[in-house]
Design goal:
Length: 359
């Protein structure tokens, strides 16, 4: 058996066991079971060293496109009109979240031996892959950045739904994520929208194309009344299994064994950021009269795919949560590169000055 064939069998076995974990979590009644179950299992196998292969990052776009296209169906004309009036709150929450992330990044840099630019890349909510790429461009070790970003997303995905359910009441099994129905033409149209949007956004080199592209096209179709048919629940569950398995596999064994002190600091900073942003969101909800669940999910420093899926599972205003997340993304994503360049330049000048050399 060739090495490639063996890896394919191993990957297939991993997805099978991950599906079983999702089923067990769903029977127990854990929120978002088809994502959290595979995530916990994959992370445990990876950290223990039993998972010998890397789950291809190319599997993630399928999950992103599926969820994004489904999320876009929530953007009805009435929902879009309601979002416009909340734009000031969305922008305010995004900027406040940035301030919280900056504060935590400063603490992280002072508590460890990592650079300030590396600390900011580890803390600011963005894609783990994109953060790692920026870290390499600035000659930073990408491993702690990936660990911090992945830990943040995993913590949000696991803790936020459980916290909301603990405060609002634990779910019954009727609360599972509901999809549409199997309709060859309707599902095919939605899939075509998702693929077209993803390819176009990728061609234009826009950030997060596999989520924002399908979301834009699906939202536009829904807003003008074309009414694509939502994917069936089985397809949504499959998308969650793929996303959860990949996310858990990014927790590498060597990071947990060789950098324990740094790991503890990163975990602490992650929980601190989540706590600060959640308190800020609850305070904003109290001042504006909005639902606290919406603002907590909207401000949560997790991936927009995961938060949209969480909102759908929790039966919270999906369009509003997604709009909050996208507002933060459109403010953060274009600005993170130049902010990191500015920080990197400042650090180089500071180091050169302290060593008595010219920058």
């Amino acid at each position: 058996m060739s090495l490639r064939t063996k890896d394919m069998f191993t990957l297939a076995a991993l997805y099978a066991v991950a599906s079983l974990a999702g089923w067990i979590f769903s029977r127990i009644g854990i929120p978002l079971p088809w994502m959290i179950g595979p995530l916990v299992l994959s992370a445990a196998l990876s950290v223990s060293g039993l998972l010998k292969i890397a789950v291809p990052v190319k599997t993630r776009p399928f999950g992103q496109m599926t969820i994004a296209a489904q999320v876009g169906l929530a953007f009805t004309p009435a929902a879009l009109a309601a979002l416009i009036g909340l734009a000031p709150i969305m922008i305010g929450m995004a900027l406040s979240s940035a301030a919280c992330a900056g504060f935590v990044a400063l603490l992280l840099a002072r508590s460890t031996n990592i650079s300030l630019s590396q600390a900011f890349l580890s803390t600011f909510p963005t894609s783990p892959v994109e953060a790692a790429i920026m870290a390499e461009r600035h000659n930073c070790d990408p491993a702690p950045v990936i660990l911090a970003q992945t830990t943040r997303i995993a913590a949000v995905v696991i803790l936020v739904p459980i916290a909301v359910f603990a405060m609002d009441g634990w779910p019954d099994r009727a609360g599972v994520v509901r999809g549409g129905t199997f309709d060859l033409l309707g599902n095919g149209f939605l899939a075509l929208l998702a693929i077209t949007g993803a390819l176009l956004f990728k061609r234009l080199r826009l950030s997060n194309p596999y989520f924002l592209g399908p979301l834009t096209f699906s939202s536009a179709a829904s807003a003008i009344g074309l009414h694509p048919t939502g994917f069936p629940p089985e397809m949504l569950s499959l998308a969650q299994i793929i996303l959860g398995t990949w996310l858990g596999s990014t927790f590498r064994h060597d990071l947990f064994v060789n950098q324990k002190r740094q790991l503890i600091t990163i975990l602490t900073s992650t929980f601190l950021l989540l706590g600060l942003v959640s308190v800020l969101a609850i305070g904003m909800a109290w001042m504006t009269g909005q639902q606290w669940e919406v603002l907590v999910l909207g401000a949560a420093p997790g991936g927009v795919t995961e938060m949209a899926l969480t909102a759908k599972y929790l039966s919270i205003d999906l369009a509003l949560v997604t709009a909050f997340q996208l507002t933060r993304i459109f403010i953060f994503m274009p600005n993170i590169p130049w902010i990191i360049r500015m920080i990197d330049t400042y650090e180089k000048r500071k180091n050169a000055s302290s060593s008595g050399q010219e920058p």
